[in-house]
Fold these 2 entries.
Entry 1:
Amino acid sequence: MSTDQNILVKLNDAGLQLNNKWLVKGVSLQVEKGKIVTLIGPNGSGKSTTAKIALGIYKKINGSVEKYTHKVGYVPQKISIDWTLPLRVNDFMVLTESLNKETINEALSLTGVIHLKDKNLGDLSGGEFQRVLLARAISKKPELLVLDEPVQGVDFTGEIALYELIKKISDELSCGILLISHDLHTVMTATDHVVCLNGHVCCSGSPMDVAKNNEYKALFGEQASQILSRYEHKHDHIHTDEGEIKKN
Amino acid sequence: MFDDFFIRALVAGIGVAFVTGPLGCFVIWRRLSYFGDTLAHSALLGVTLAFTMEFNIALSVFIISSMIALILIQLQKKTNLPGDALLGLLAHSSLAVGLVVIGFLTFIRFDIMGLLFGDILAVSVDDLLIIWIGGAFILLTLKFIWKPLFASTVNYELAEAEGLNPDRAKAIFTILMAAIIAISIKMVGLLLITGMLIIPAAMARNLSSSPQSMVIYSIIGGLLSVIIGLFTSLEFNTSSGPSIITAALLLFILSLFKIKQSIKLKN
């Protein structure tokens, strides 16, 4: 099915070392048109770093990144905006690309924040801001969307709606999505490919494969349609300070 | 028309205000006030160089300021000193070296006060050409790099991730800073150039709710400061630089009565 022409970004054995410590190591993955690839893993496992490697934010990396598109939309995990800037939602929407009014309104309506259009960015709540971030990323109709915990701080009903929206966008725009998330339950249903990270790739495959491989079966199988409350990460190895991997 | 020194000064000042308006906004947004100051202090060295070698003042100031900016970038990479210490080091040492060199140039009569605080009498027709042509060039370049520069001012990673090349925009902006200092040194003087950059922009921040409106208010504020300042300078025989900056300060104080953004609760 997947020919090489569908590949949007490809990481080959990519890693990043900072002050002689590996933040993440030996990651190989690819994002194709119309597919959702999800990165999961505990805190500090290198999910955001991997996303930034894929985006080309880091210059000195190990391995290589092949990027086949310039139309990228990015929702960062953390964004610190200096409030010395007078910046309304509307100004923020056209930050990296000029868009017409209809496109901006459409995107803001999709994420349910059209009423905030003329508000100052600094006056938004965390969840509102997150919706604006997502609207901005999708408004430019990107070929590759990188979403680093896009629904953090969004209320529960909104969370589900936004994940549905992300799935819809992936289908409609046939763009590739690299998604980072903590909560597996919402993600697993829509994802095509899951990469489980813990400083390196622990396992990867379809959601089902991953579930089978890593004692997910017990977690997911029992409550297949139920909401899974917690994601437990079991190791067959330990990590040393230098980022080396040792088998137990 | 340009025979009258006052008309020349007015035309020069208006040209400078058009450029310092938008650049000043970026100086505030990117927190570059002391960077601007450092470049301006180093301008004295450029001026003395110009006198010694009978070279164009604006060009030589531009070259020296750009060099200081490059040295700063290198020092930031090579040393463990914080940015403000490096800025202070470069600002005061280049000013000091400039003054020492002036001491040696006994054969040239120097108007030190004019250099430090601006001298409207010194503006020649050539200076007008430099200001308007150079200024137009700076504004065009700024328009060209606006998107990546502004996007990276808001968030560097977002700009980089979405392919805007913020590093290049930043480098070009640094050159533009050196250029505006070079062309405005005669008007405002090297000790007060940063004031011309930040005070009208600071006033504009109080009145505006979007980046575009802040740029427009900043230009208007700069123009008013120049016009009010120069007339005062003519009337009371004060130095042009301090008069313009004082006018800008008065406008800033007036703007405090109409602050647009409600002051945010600290949490």
Entry 2:
Amino acid sequence: MEKKTNTLLILALIVGLAFHGSAIFFTLESTYDALIHLFFADHYANSWFDPWEYRWYTGFTVQSYPPLVHQLIGILSYIGGLKFGMYAVALIAIVLFITGAYRYTLLMTGSRRIAGYGAVMAVFSSTFVETLHIFGQLPSVSALSILLHAMTEIYLWIKTGKTRYFITSATMLAVTVTSHHVTPLFGMVFFIAPLMGMAVMDAAREKVNSYKALTFKVFWGTTLQHFWRIAKFGGTAIFLLVFCIFPYWYNSKRNPITQVAIPHGSRDNFLEVTSSGLVFFIIPWGVFLFILPYFFYRYFSKRYVFFGLSFALLTILGTGGTTPIPLMMLGETAFNILTLDRFTLWATIMALPIFAEFAYRMVEGDLKVLIQSKFGGVYHRVLGGLIAGGMLFMVLFTMTLGYFRPSQPAKIKMLPIVNFLGADSHDSWRYLPLGFGDQMAWLSAQSGAMTVDGNYHSARRLPELTTRAIERIENSKFRGVEGIGSLQQFLTVPEKYNLKYIFSNDKFYDPILYYCGWQRLQQLENGIMVWEKLNVAPIPQIMPKQDVPTIMKIMWGIIPLTTVLIAIFVNIQMIWVRLLKSKKMPEHSFMKLELPYNRFPPKLLTFSHWWALLVLICLGYGMYIFYVKNVAQLSPNNVVESYYDALDFKEFSTAHSYLDPEDNIDIAQYMLEVSVTDGILSSYAKLDSLGIEIYDETENSAKAKVATRWITPLENVFNNDYHELVKRKNKWYIKSEKVDNDIPPDQLFTANGTTYYNHGRRKITTQETYHEDVLKQPVLEILSAKLVKYKGQYSVIGELQNVDNTPADVVINATLYNDDNKELANYNAKHQIKHKLMPKETTTFKINFEGIAWSSTKDTLPPTFDPDQFTPVSFEEQPTKFNLQSAGNTANTDLYKHVALQDLKYTEQGFDGVLFNSGVQEVTIPQLIISYYDENSELLWVDHKFITEGVRIQRKQFFNYKPLELDSLEVINSSLENVFVNGLPNKAVADKIFPNRKIIHGKQQTQPFNGKGFEYLKFEINSYIGNPK
Amino acid sequence: MRIRIVFILSLILIGCSDKQEEQPSKVVYPKVDLVSNITNSIAGEAISLTFKADTDINNIKLQIKNAFGSVLLSPDVSKKEDIVFQIPKNYTRVAGPCRWKLLVDGHTLQKGTFDIATNAPKATYIESYFGPRSVTAGNNDFSMLTIAPTDAYDNPLDDGTPVTVKYQFQDNIDELQIETESFFAFYNVRSTLKSGRILVTAECNGTSSKELATIVYPDNAVNFSISSSSAHNYADGNQIITFKSDVIKDQYGNIVTNGTLVTFVIKNDQDAYLYTIGTTINGVAEAKTLHPDKAATWEIQAFVTGAAESNTDNFTFKAAIKDYPVHFSKGNRNIDVGPFESFMKQLIPDGLLLKLDIYDMNGAFVTSKKTTTKNGVCNIYLGEYFLAAGKYKLKISAAGITKEFIKDIDGDTVE
């Protein structure tokens, strides 16, 4: 038989390259993983043999991920840059996948025609589209493709025992191992084991005349015959798996993953979390869902029975948390470490040949005949069209998912940030990007500067990160309370990691940056706001590093590419022969096993129809539920939910459409009213949960109590709102609320003030700043400081004053000691302090000692996270003394002091007060710092309250504050002995600058109040301005 | 057999016996004399050491050791009569003692020391520091000027080198002579009583330093006085009252630094301590706040906390609104309040706060509602969802006037 070029395969390759090859340029960079691989590639491009990478997590080893793909990109980057390398490798992966699918199908079916179908199906398989274009898992795709190629060789080795096949299969497996570790590990179990079974089965089949005659006895005998081949290959495979990436296993042993597992969508219950169901079940399976019965029918035939078992197992494991079976099978630990989507990926890849066979039978085989005879030709064409259309729809849907529901923030121009980091030694400190998404990896790849964050969560090293289920600090708002909590720890004690610069692409984080004492530096031309923190020392010249033996470095640097070279060398002859058909090759033995396909079982056809109907009903029901839940005005519950959703996403015109039309509030008026309300809830909050209680519902009216929980960067806000709902023309509406009518007396308002500017360097030079350009640190004085215990928690409280003549930025750090002078804890003041002080301004402060949350991972995590983000440090011993170190640095921003306390009244509900903004900047989030004093005007406690609405210019804002009960408070130590200012003893400063301090002033500014455990209190105001003008 | 063993053993013994060490042949070291006699040199001048030997020496070396480091030199000219070592520039430029050793095969033939003096005449450079960058006016603060004069090769000049220090404050320029000690000279420039800027410079051997400055900031403020002003003295809750200090100065009459924070504490007749904040410009602090919305007397006192306070100023607000009507309708659920008329019978500006507290008939607090006036009136509707039908005590307070009603909600409007 003359061998002809398989036109379908050529067609698949052309279409595949054209389609995927052009699409990757629009998708790959916004996938989850691709840029991470790019960062690793950059590491190899710069230091091939040294595995230590300083730029993430204060240093980690790249031996924590198999290197082949990264090294390939790294090498190719010398030709046309990193991105060129990435696209080149992606193109190679596409070709390998299509040809791999072809060879795998050929092996399974023995028909070149069906194998051609397999190649075409591979191009349009939604699971491949998702893995490449949404997840960007280049190593996984490459490894899987090579594994598919290797399967034919493995089969032939088992079957024929020719050394040639042993060598080819081993070389290909080595390449697989060095590209991705999980693929061969599980591939052994799920692909290679059934493949060996099938090879033995085929050998056994040759001994008897029919499958019927193939008994277990025959099979067992054949297995024993082939045992040494299997053992030889199995041993080699294990050896390759261990040897080729030995440094990886070495590193896993040395740095075991002890971190808290990160929740992953693939472990969700897909019926509950429908978005996870869509991404991890519906999309990868796609049209295959309808043909599942055929897959099982075919895979549980005698020849394929081992694949059948494997396929069933993969299908079940891929369902994640929907059924309890995966958890039972994998066990608690494995279930929480593995991402289960890979099982679905393998299941769908495994199904490809059978799907190709189905397509062949449908298009030109016996199934076509059967359907045409049973239902007629039109039905066959319609059905075929539906299946093809369904496939195309899934591909387009998957491909555009990232476009309609972006998983990443808009593309950020990195050049201004890279330039900023490179200029003026800014890279002597660490930086932190916020709101960058996976693009942070691309920033890291372009700059030599270091960050405390990172994007490869298995390598996380900092305890602040590993003890919490957060993958990055950068997107901490999506991780709720623990994310924000972790971020706050980095922001409060940035000195610990020499963190000085923050690039903020999300204004959500701005308030917490301000209240932790950070200041805006400048807005870069790409719109990224740079924040900086004063008083942070640069990174030391010598940094810790975990070294590995030289032999590991050499192995890691040389083996991966060598495996590729060997594989190409060994296989080149075959590739050449196969491509050009230059030499007549003997047919492989599996080619004889092509089935005649002359009788499609009618019962299966009927069953498949019922199954398809069932799937359709399920889908339809799902869509109906989705519709009912999402039609805004169908029920009182829906309208309230939609209204809050619209507010949360700032879709004000949508929100307006839910308001009662008879209230006659036109859209322009509504937008105006919304636009003038500023504050933490309207500008910096994410709606976290919404509890709607509908009561007094009648035919046309209802009342709703809405309990909302908002995640703000500062703390959680709980709100209760009441709404009246009405039904008009079958639609429910919300009654609108009253707005504040207050108008200021003046139209134009003038204000004078002192502004400050610091040159930094007066002379433009790359040298260190000149001595005369270094500003003197403003002198502070600590007026009082105490170690107190309140509600079982230790805090250091106190009051300090900027006694200098320039504005000061204040950093204050307290250390607790026990009686034996053993250090117990150390922390900075977070937001219970005014960080920026004008000359002679005072502020009270409180330092809470925050421990790293759940610091031992063995602790069971609270099932629902405590709304209080605070994790007090657990003291083994009683703290009795403290040391207070404060440092002033010249401040020149955020010095707005024009919010006055205009009225204060005590009622049964607490203090009702009025704030008045007498200046010309809009205060977005006002903060009250409330200090409590005893009868001698000695400070007892400091509390704070964020007011959820802003204070507009020349307007009032009301607040309510319930004073605390302090009768249980215990003052442990109130000595000013170990208190230091800019490294000097506080007493010396006080004696020199304020020898005749009028102590009485403190008392004269406090509010007498007969409270529980205190006699006086004071309200101080700290104002965050969202948009300084 | 035995003989053989004895033989072998004796052979071994002979082999192990101590071998006579070869005695070192007596080395006769040549006699070398220093020809050039350098005891003193000046930094930067070429120095060479010349020796004379009685025999030819092949591997003679000179070791030089001074503050720059240590080096082994080979002779430039190596004749019997004339062995010349040229000392490298790096070594001759460093002032201080310089030790040398003449060596042959690790054996010291001769050694000596000579001094290199600083080269003050060639050129003098001045390294100067001045800090802190700012001081406080008065008698107990100072900035220190530190001068380290060096020669052209960065050698500090000899102790006792005279340095002229000049400093200028306002019209005065003072000049004085100090001397270096332990390689540098220093002078404490004392703070002045007036605030301003002190410029200093230093001169040594005709070379001047750069200009250095310290700023004399004013001392802590002393007591001052304040005044209040407003467009009118009615409590309309809308106008703005301004508090202003006179020029705040320190004990020496200097105006306090711009930006000094002054807290104006207001004590009202309800004993509430309110405040507003101003920062000084040219010594004057100005702070603003809103008129109260009911008659009040305010006692205002300002503080520069810890340092100074002002007199207590009083401001009395007269009631702008004498009374307001309340009208119930729609089963007492709709409450119209107003019109609110101000001191000239004009409608008050929008935004007057009205608060409604609702108590049940046992006097227990149920709920409260707030609203603001618009066009002089305001309206509260107690929807059914908000308040169940029944008898309630309604307390309306606005502009300091509280009115109480007992109403049957959903009852008869007309009483």
